Amino acid sequence: MDNGDIEGAIARLESINDLNPNYPQTNYNLGIAYYKKGAYDKAIKSLEKAVKLNEKFSEAYYALGVIYEELSLNMTDKAKKDDSLKKQENIAKLIEYLKASRENYAHYLNVNNDSQDSENIKPRIESLNNDINHYTSLLRNAS
């Protein structure tokens, strides 16, 4: 993956994972590779398995927070463009992504004791909370 061969890394990690699917680090690495490929659903699935196998896997929580935050940013444009009914569905999905990002960042802070990371993540969580409140209000007003 470091050499830019994402497809090769995914193939290799998948075969390693087939041999031992209960190794958190392999699931994490596979999740990161899928993320780099843009396969968000597979990335989320692999990263969620990593934290299920190791509830203190802070890097996996952080990666999930980043992915959900990125998905929310992608959904923001969609939520602005579509017709009324589709717009409401997109805003609801956007709120879901924002909450998932916030939740994973919070888990990250709970298992990671690095104070510098804490100072970087707390403003992100606050921003996510503001966005959740904003879009929840928009969704209520649209109903």
Structure, described:
The protein is mostly helical. The protein folds into two domains: 54 residues, Serine Threonine Protein Phosphatase 5, Tetratricopeptide repeat; 87 residues, Up-down Bundle (Methane Monooxygenase Hydroxylase, Chain G, domain 1), CATH 1.20.58. It contains six helices and no strands. Helix 2 packs antiparallel against helix 3. It is globular and about 50 Å long. The mean pLDDT is 91.
Q: Please trace the helix and strand order, writing H or E for each element.
A: HHHHHH
- Main sheet record: none
SS-derived structural category: mainly alpha
Could you give the distance between the termini? 46 Å
Helical segment tally? 6
CATH architecture tag of the largest domain = Up-down Bundle
- Average of pLDDT: 91
User: Which band does the percent of strand residues land in?
Assistant: under 5%
Low-confidence residue ranges: none
Radius of gyration: 17 Å
CATH class designation of the largest domain: Mainly Alpha
Helicity, in percent? over 70%
List keywords for this structure.
mainly alpha, 143 residues, globular, Serine Threonine Protein Phosphatase 5, Tetratricopeptide repeat
